[in-house]
Amino acid sequence: MSQPALNSLDAHLKTLHLAAIRQHYHPRAQAAVEEGWPYETYLATLIQEEVDRRTRNRLQRRIKEAHFPLRKELADFDFAALPQLNKQKILTLAQGHYLQQAEPVIFVGAPGLGKTHVAIGLGLAACRQDHRVRFYTVTALINDLHQAQAEHRLPKFLEKAGRHQLIILDELGYVPFSTSGAQLLFQFCAALSEQVSLLVTTNLPFSEWIRVLGDERLTSGLLDRLTFRSHILEFRGESYRFRHQQQSLST
Ligand code: ADP
Ligand code: MG
User: Fold this and answer.
1) What is the H or E stretch that residue 9 is in?
2) Which of 170, 188, 229, 235 has CA 20 to 30 A from 151's CA?
3) Quick check: CB of 90 below 6 Å from ligand 1?
4) For ligand 1, is residue 72 a contact (CB within 6 Å)?
């Protein structure tokens, strides 16, 4: 086999989008010579660096595309502050099996108890498992749905949403919906409920959902979709922020 010209290596690596190999092949070649690596070890080292770079980039992309409003990790969640919360259940959810079955998750509880924090933490865990995740506040989703409908691209919007494994719908119940908003939300959940895990956080017990949704049939339809095979977690206790404020005032 005739030897290819070394001076085309850079260009070829660029063409093939092998940025990590391009960055490292020269210094690793020096190390290989100095330390007497077999050729295969040199190759394996470079390939590993390329794979690592791609894994890192993909994770960054997954996180960016999820549009989390904040970066909140489960590891930073103080479970001791909410002893009634089923910690084991949340840690099990973080392993991601519910995503394979498109099971819904509902967090119910008063504001300030960490629902959004845990939802984002589960979202990040799903990104690390290479799942596609999207975070919305319910209000923002309904705005997007209205806009998609006005522009006659609702089917496309639903189809794109269906490519995710997890969609977080934060803060159901804070703002009441218009009739069309409630219908669009129902349509969204109905279209996705068996394809994508929907994680809903709400301050309202189920019996009060009708207050924000406005329509009994729609509410029961939505509850039906969201509670079938679902993981329901209740957040009960004292507001974390409030408690910390109290503590810092008293010290
Ligand atoms: P909710 O969504 O239930 O209203 P958040 O998740 O927004 O509550 O929590 C309010 C703030 O308090 C956030 O900054 C969150 O990180 C923090 N927080 C709440 N509970 C805890 C906890 N148990 N451990 C650590 N931080 C917490
Ligand atoms: Mg919240």
Assistant:
1) helix 9-15
2) 170
3) no
4) yes
By most ligand atoms within 8 Å of CB, the mutation choice from 240, 244, 245, 248 for ligand 1 is 240
Single-letter amino acid code for the residue at 222:
L
Closest to 106 (Cα-Cα) out of 213, 221, 232: 232
Measured from the CB, is residue 111 less than 6 Å from ligand 1?
yes
> pLDDT tens-digit profile of 43-95?
999 999 999 999 999 999 999 999 999 999 999 999 999 999 999 999 999 99
Q: Give residue 149 CA to ligand 1 midpoint distance, Å.
A: 34
Q: Dump pLDDT digits (tens) for 113-131.
A: 999 999 999 999 999 999 9
CA distance readout (Å), 196 to 93, 101, 192, 222: 15, 8, 6, 15
Quick count: other Cβ atoms within 10 Å of Cβ 62? 19
- Ligand 1 center to 116 CA (angstroms): 7
Residues 194-213 as b or e (16 or more Cβ within 10 Å = b):
eebbbbbbbbbebeebbebb
CA of 117 to the centre of ligand 1 (A): 5
pTM of the model: 0.91
Distance 57 CA to ligand 2 centre (A): 29
Q: Which of 88, 74, 86 is nearest to 237 (CA)?
A: 86
Question: Which pLDDT value is given to residue 139?
Answer: 95
Torsion of the alpha carbons at 21, 26, 29 and 31, rounded to the nearest 10? -110
At CA 197, angle to CA 81 and CA 185, rounded to 5?
100
